[in-house]
Amino acid sequence: MDGFHLAQLNVSRLQFPMDGPEMKDFVGALDNINALAERADGFVWRLKGDGNDATDVRFPNADELLVNLSVWCDIEALRAFVYKTAHAAVMARRARWFPAFGSAHMVLWWVPAGHVPTIGEAADRLTSLDQNGPTSAAFTFDQAFDAAGQPMALPEIIKDCA
Q1: Helices of type H across the chain
Q2: For 25, what's the count of Cα atoms within 13 Å in the CB-facing half-sphere?
């Protein structure tokens, strides 16, 4: 829908120190994956800390969590990046670096075009998803809503990857 963009947050709990040898492959892939995202069709913005990534940005009341926060033109652009690029191969190895989360770790929501979401806003959306399940205010790829708040059908791009 014109006038809206899709915000996404995902968080991961560190299993090892970021500078530890166990994280070498993950850390080594960050710059390439971030550059890939920025070149992707539909990319709008991503959170960056002191470096070119957000590894030094902390989630409220959870210093052990890594944060990834970005904005995309629409859900199709984000899906394509997540599931149809080199990002998918890196994330297929995520169990090496990040233990199972145990609650919602990824949330999507619509923002007015030009709005830059904050970590606090994203944390509220993740809490909403965890407490209420998917709603038009906080949802997932599997149970998505359009910017008008209507449920969206599960597209083929997800069915190919599920």
Answers
A1: 24-39, 75-84, 86-91, 119-132, 156-159
A2: 11
- Phi, then psi, of 99 in degrees rounded to 5: -70, 165
- Whether the CB-CB separation of 87 and 36 falls below 8 Å is answered with yes
Q: What is the DSSP string of 49-62?
A: -SSSSSTT--BTTB
Structure pTM? 0.91
Asked if 144 contacts 152 with a C-beta cutoff of 8 angstroms, the reply is yes
| Weakly modelled stretches of the chain, pLDDT under 70 | 1, 154-162
Reported as a single tens digit per residue, the pLDDT across 119-134 is 999 999 999 999 999 9
Beta bridge partners of 62: 59
Beta partners for residue 112, in sequence order: 4
